[in-house]
């Protein structure tokens, strides 16, 4: 099989990985970095910047820069720039295309296939949007897998035995906590929780505020009002924060950061870890409530968890690790790189699919029961929650009135026997039902969930063979021909 890559398409950073000689390796981008900021900037001259260069001009070119496009996947997002209307899929695809190109440059061969990761709580529409973005980028997306599952694969979770795992993922802008149970090769995501607005960016902001206040006291100038100065400060504050994960004290020096009528001003400040930890204490506190929630939803106590895995750049902060260890009452596993483990897990899954890795199988499960509505607001389950995917099952239904020609199939997801209490995923009509007294026609409804967690439903009248099928998707999902046009556009823009 042609080369497959694993992609961790992150809110802040994306990482690519592949399997070489049976081992996962992270692929550096064309600047030699393993992390590519998930940033896209459209320049006035028509050029598109992706990654570090896009991120570095974000503050001064904010209207034309996209920093966290992952947050908009599966939503009706549109950005109009220079007469072109961009969907979130198109912008995500530009990042993925650059990742593909970088992988090809590094490997010296073409890359056709990919396994891409998504957060465990991503809905069907969000998964579909990520898959479409992969397609637009020119990749054949073999599989969408859950980020915590990928992390578990990297941490060497094996298919034998049973283990309860907590995965703490603190990235640039989001915090996810997932409780997984791995049992005989099946990964069950038992609960997820988190905070969509908590991450490394907040740690940067706290530092920026502290530094700007210090500067104001010394120079009587508010740096946060000066775009250029703020851009420089943002970059240096992040660097300082990263250095503080290793060093106990750091100095920031930005000569000529700004000027007033008395001349140029220089920024100089020394910050030690103790000060940093005091500043971020309110952020550390916010890690606990979602973790409590996830454990409670899973019906578990912290001491029942066998392993605590760390994911995301911000779990490199010693105080973050301490807060997690203190709450969980056990040391965190540190055997793998938290920034790379999701991508390497995706590559391992790719290796399993390609047959290069043989002694490992991990299978995700469907987190909610799927079924349809019948008379009297009743919910009839067809695929029960916790079934390992891919899977398919059917049930036979009938009509409720004489000579009924059309049957409406209302697809729902949830655990209540009352249809209206569950989540509606869509409706479709089966027409051409055989005219017959009520209760006589036999209509078979089949649900399938593919390995990516994407649901499709088909109904057939077993007497007339009239059938109707749909893949659950949001209305705003592009058609195949739209995808093709958009894909060509991206190819023209990025080569
Ligand atoms: P995401 O999953 O959101 O795309 P990442 O997992 O790559 O993001 O995390 C990015 C965040 O991690 C950034 O805020 C970055 O500053 C932070 N980070 C990376 N390395 C370190 C480090 N050694 N110490 C502290 N923070 C770090
Ligand atoms: Mg991530």
Describe the structure.
The chain is an alpha+beta fold and 495 residues long. The protein folds into three domains: 4-198 and 286-365 and 484-491, 2-Layer Sandwich (Nucleotidyltransferase, domain 5), CATH 3.30.420; 200-281, ATPase, substrate binding domain, subdomain 4 (Actin, Chain A, domain 4, Alpha-Beta Complex); 370-464, Substrate Binding Domain Of DNAk, Chain A, domain 1, CATH 2.60.34. Helices cover 30% and strands 32% of the residues. It contains eleven helices and 25 strands. The strands form seven sheets. Strands 1, 2, 3, 4, 10 and 11 form a six-stranded mixed sheet that branches. A hairpin with a 2-residue loop joins strand 2 (13-20) and strand 3 (23-27). Helix 4 (147-154) packs across helix 10, helix 5 (200-219) packs across helix 6 and helix 5 (200-219) crosses helix 7 (273-285). The two termini are 25 Å apart. 43% of the residues are buried. Adenosine-5'-diphosphate binds next to helix 5 and helix 6. The site of magnesium ion (MG) has 6 residues, from loops.
Please supply descriptive tags for the structure shown above:
Actin, Chain A, domain 4; about 30% helix; Substrate Binding Domain Of DNAk, Chain A, domain 1; binds magnesium ion; alpha+beta; about 500 residues
Give me the count of strands: 25
CATH topology of the largest domain: Nucleotidyltransferase, domain 5
Q: Give the N-to-C terminal Cα separation.
A: 25 Å
From the spread of the alpha carbons, the general shape counts as: globular
Number of domains: 3
Point out poorly predicted stretches: none
Q: What small ligands are held by the chains?
A: adenosine-5'-diphosphate, magnesium ion
| Overall average pLDDT | 92
Helicity, as a percent range: 25-40%
Can you tell me the CATH superfamily of the largest domain?
ATPase, nucleotide binding domain
């Amino acid at each position: 099989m042609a080369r497959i890559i694993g992609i961790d398409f992150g809110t802040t950073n994306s990482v690519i990985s592949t399997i070489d000689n049976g081992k996962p390796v992270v692929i550096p981008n064309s600047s030699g970095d393993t992390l590519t900021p998930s940033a896209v900037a459209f320049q006035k001259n028509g050029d598109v910047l992706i990654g570090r260069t896009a991120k570095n001009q974000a503050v001064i070119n904010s209207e034309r820069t996209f920093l966290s496009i992952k947050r908009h996947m599966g939503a009706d997002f549109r950005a109009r720039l220079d007469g072109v209307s961009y969907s979130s899929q198109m912008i995500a695809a530009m990042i993925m295309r650059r990742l593909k190109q970088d992988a090809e440059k590094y490997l010296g061969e073409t890359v056709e296939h990919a396994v891409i990761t998504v957060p465990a709580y991503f809905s069907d529409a969000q998964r579909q949007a990520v898959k479409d973005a992969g397609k637009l980028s020119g990749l054949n997306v073999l599989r969408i897998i859950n980020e915590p599952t990928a992390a578990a694969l990297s941490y060497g979770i094996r298919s034998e035995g049973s283990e309860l795992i907590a995965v703490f993922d603190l990235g640039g802008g989001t915090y996810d906590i997932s409780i997984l149970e791995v049992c005989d090769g099946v990964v069950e995501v038992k609960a997820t929780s988190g905070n969509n607005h908590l991450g490394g960016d907040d740690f940067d902001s706290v530092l920026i505020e502290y530094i700007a206040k210090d500067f104001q006291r010394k120079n009587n100038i508010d740096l946060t009002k000066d775009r250029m100065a703020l851009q420089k400060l943002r970059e240096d504050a992040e660097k300082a924060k990263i250095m503080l994960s290793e060093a106990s004290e750091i100095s920031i020096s930005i000569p000529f950061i700004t000027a007033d009528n008395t001349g140029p001003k220089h920024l100089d400040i020394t910050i030690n870890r103790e000060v940093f930890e005091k500043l971020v204490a309110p952020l550390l506190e916010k890690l606990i409530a979602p973790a409590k929630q996830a454990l409670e939803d899973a019906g578990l106590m912290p001491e029942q968890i066998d392993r605590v895995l760390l994911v995301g750049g911000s779990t490199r902060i010693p105080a973050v690790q301490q807060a997690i260890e203190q709450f969980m009452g056990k040391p965190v596993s540190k055997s793998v790189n938290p920034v790379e483990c999701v991508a390497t897990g995706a590559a391992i899954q790719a290796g399993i699919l390609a047959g290069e890795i043989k002694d490992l199988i991990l299978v995700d499960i469907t987190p909610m029961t799927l079924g349809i509505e019948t008379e009297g607001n009743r919910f009839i389950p067809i695929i029960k929650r916790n079934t390992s995917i891919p899977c398919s099952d059917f049930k036979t239904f009938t009509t409720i009135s004489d000579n009924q020609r059309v049957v409406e199939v209302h697809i729902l997801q949830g655990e209540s026997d009352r249809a209206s209490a569950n989540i509606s995923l869509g409706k479709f009509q089966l027409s051409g039902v055989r005219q017959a007294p009520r209760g006589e026609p036999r209509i078979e409804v089949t649900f399938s969930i593919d390995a990516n967690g994407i649901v499709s439903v088909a109904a057939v009248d077993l007497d007339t063979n009239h059938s109707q099928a749909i893949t659950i998707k949001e209305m705003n999902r592009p058609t195949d021909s739209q995808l093709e046009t958009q894909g060509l556009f991206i190819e023209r823009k990025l080569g």
